Automatic annotation (TrEMBL):
Entry GO MF terms: GTP binding; GTPase activity; metal ion binding; ribosome binding
Stretches for region Disordered: 1-68, 73-92, 259-279
Pfam families with a match to the protein in the record: GTP-bdg_M (PF16360), GTP-bdg_N (PF13167), MMR_HSR1 (PF01926)
Gene3D superfamilies linked to this entry: 6.10.250.2860, GTPase HflX, N-terminal domain, P-loop containing nucleotide triphosphate hydrolases
InterPro entries: G_HFLX_dom, GTP-bd, GTP-bd_M, GTPase_HflX, GTPase_HflX_N, GTPase_HflX_N_sf, P-loop_NTPase
Role: GTPase that associates with the 50S ribosomal subunit and may have a role during protein synthesis or ribosome biogenesis.
Name recorded for this polypeptide: GTPase HflX
Biased composition (Basic and acidic residues): 73-85
Biased composition (Polar residues): 1-21
Stretches assigned to the Hflx-type G domain: 320-485
UniProt keyword terms in alphabetical order: Cytoplasm, GTP-binding, Magnesium, Metal-binding, Nucleotide-binding
Length: 555
């Protein structure tokens, strides 16, 4: 049917005129990107798109690895099996129990709800441009977009890439490609197009006018995922703020497509949705959005002190802090679970973690430290989100050591390393000592692992799944965290036995212990904050310290 359209040229014609990929190149890329979507629609699963784990994936893992790589995934080419070290994945059950059901809401309570409803995704077609990079780069980016779309709960029907030096200022894609996209949309029955870029509001509108379905961009999609996943009060507020910020300049466009959706009813002026927002309404909405944003900013600012206090407390007690950072789906939460038995949510989805967890951990020689899980990073993380999550990311900026987790089985681990480092630089965390954990070593290509190990120092190949390399990672962490550095000789009278137990509990390195008639003699290394408390027991600097201790027994 599409062949009858004059703009559908043969591959070679079109590549001469618009600089598209050649026919085979394009076929190649798209077929690889969409292999999974296709295999899924062939299996014609009657269930909800999000519930398709069993049959499909079992079949996929039975196929040879090179075929499985064709899955439209940044996601692992694997089932979602959990290993015991993942702990109880209660959050996962909860998340899966709550699925979106489209089109249920009928009444709009306030303007923000309009936007949320606008973003509800179902069957989507992806579209991207590639200018300077290789086809492989473009393919990776489109794969990632497919994974993001799936994480947001939609089904990817098809994808298109156009080779073009600069985006079309009007419709982003060239006008011919835009029409072609319209055909693909019609042929697949898609209701949404997702563009792999941040579109200017006018581009989004113009493209929407061509393809006749809703168009959203990468930023809108990521914001949508964050909105679905945020759980804590602060996380929710931050995401809403980012969404509103993103929406504000685009308000007019949303309003228009909304009134278009209302269709005939709007024209005949009856019933719900008939009052398409006119200019005045939009002005009003803008003001309400600004007010809401101001309120959210105040709320977030008010939540900050609690976090700050906690962090300062940790600093005061000088417990070393380690932050786990890395690209989304790299296995950060899995690794945290491995290192601490935390039972943090692990999911083969992008941005599973939005509410960072801080856990206690210990080096093999018993030095305590905190280990913080963080929000995953992604290429071109929307600036609105970097802003909104700055306080979360500050947790990283404040760490003594960063464990940078990379998915070594990913097609472009170097690109992920760079994307993460860009954000780290953004939040001022670039000079913190970094340990690179090359995760998923169980399924990674040994050649890639070797290449990464050569370039990244210090680095270690690990598998959160099998536990391989985790002991080595623990050793690297132990070597990197600040150690207690005050060397003291103590004599603690037996009546003050609690001091000795406190030393054991409090991250002191106890180098020697000797029981003498006067009390316990210890040679220890402690952190600054303990030195004052121990002054009265010191035999190295304060001669007669033991006697002093008798005079002023500590509480
Ligand atoms: N084969 C293999 N899979 C792993 C390994 N580590 C994690 N995974 C899988 O990778 C997926 C993502 O793991 P998570 O721990 O949720 O990743 P994350 O970095 O916390 O992801 P976000 O929170 O979404 O940013 C899950 O399906 C894990 O089971 C590993 O060492 N080997
Ligand atoms: Mg996580």
């Amino acid at each position: 049917m599409t062949d009858s359209f004059p703009h559908r040229q043969t591959a070679s014609e079109s590549s001469q005129q618009t600089g598209d990929l050649t026919g085979t190149e394009l076929e190649d890329v798209v077929s690889r990107v969409l292999a999974r979507a296709r295999s899924r629609s062939e299996s014609a699963s009657p269930t909800h798109p999000g519930d398709d784990v069993p049959a499909d994936d079992a079949a996929a893992s039975a196929r040879p690895a090179h075929e499985r790589l064709g899955r439209a995934r940044e996601l692992a080419p694997e089932d979602d099996a959990h290993v015991p070290s993942d702990g109880d994945q209660q959050d996962l059950a909860e998340r899966h129990a709550l699925r979106r059901v489209a089109g249920l809401s009928t009444e709009l309570e306030d303007v923000t709800e309009v936007e949320y409803r606008q973003l509800r995704l179902e069957r989507v077609v992806l579209a991207g441009l590639y200018s300077s990079g290789t086809p492989a780069d473009a393919e990776n980016s489109l794969r990632e977009l497919a994974a993001l779309a799936e994480t947001a709960g939609s089904e990817v029907m098809d994808g298109m890439l156009q080779r073009r030096v600069n985006p079309d200022p009007g419709t982003y894609l060239g006008s011919g490609k835009a029409l072609e996209l319209k055909d693909v949309v019609a042929a697949t029955g898609a209701d949404t197009v997702i563009v792999d870029a941040e579109l200017a509001p006018s581009q989004r509108r113009a493209l929407e006018d061509v393809v006749k379905v809703k168009v959203i961009d990468r930023t809108g999609l990521i914001l949508d995922i964050f909105a679905q996943h945020a759980k804590s009060k602060e996380g929710k507020a931050q995401v809403e703020l980012a969404q509103l910020e993103y929406m504000l300049p685009r308000l007019r466009g949303w309003g228009e497509s909304l009134s278009r959706q209302a269709g005939g009813r709007a024209a005949s002026g009856e019933g719900i949705g008939s009052r398409g927002p006119g200019e005045t309404k939009i002005e009003l909405d803008r003001r309400r959005i600004r007010q809401r944003m101001a309120k959210l900013r105040r709320e977030i600012a008010a939540m900050k002190p609690a976090r700050e206090t906690k962090r300062l407390n940790r600093k005061r007690n000088a417990v070393p802090s380690v932050a786990i950072a890395g690209y989304t789906n790299a296995g950060k939460s899995s690794l945290l679970n491995r290192l601490t038995d935390a039972g943090v949510l692990v999911e083969n989805a992008l941005f599973a973690t939005l509410d960072p967890t801080v856990r206690k951990a210990q080096t093999p020689d018993g030095i305590g430290y905190t280990l913080a899980d963080t929000v995953g990073f992604v290429r071109s993380l929307p600036t609105q989100l970097v802003e909104a999550f700055r306080s979360t990311l500050e947790e990283v900026a404040d760490a003594d050591v960063i464990v940078h987790v990379v998915d070594a089985s990913h097609p472009d681990p170097e690109g992920q390393l760079k994307a993460v480092r860009d954000v780290l630089t953004d939040v001022g965390a670039n000079d913190i000592p970094e340990i690179v954990a090359l995760n998923k070593a169980d399924i990674a290509d040994p050649v890639v692992l070797a290449r990464l190990r050569n370039h990244e120092h210090p680095s270690v190949a690990v598998s959160a799944r099998t536990g391989e390399g985790v002991a080595e990672l623990q050793r690297l962490i132990a070597a990197a965290i600040p150690r207690p550095d005050h060397d003291l000789d103590l004599l603690v009278p037996y009546v003050h036995g609690e001091v000795v137990s406190r030393l054991h509990a409090q991250d002191a390195e106890i180098l020697s212990t000797e029981h003498t008639p006067e009390g316990t003699r210890l040679h220890v290394r402690v952190r600054e904050d303990l030195v004052g408390d121990l002054e009265q027991y010191r035999t190295d600097r304060a001669p007669g310290g033991a006697a002093a201790a008798e005079d002023h027994p500590s509480a």
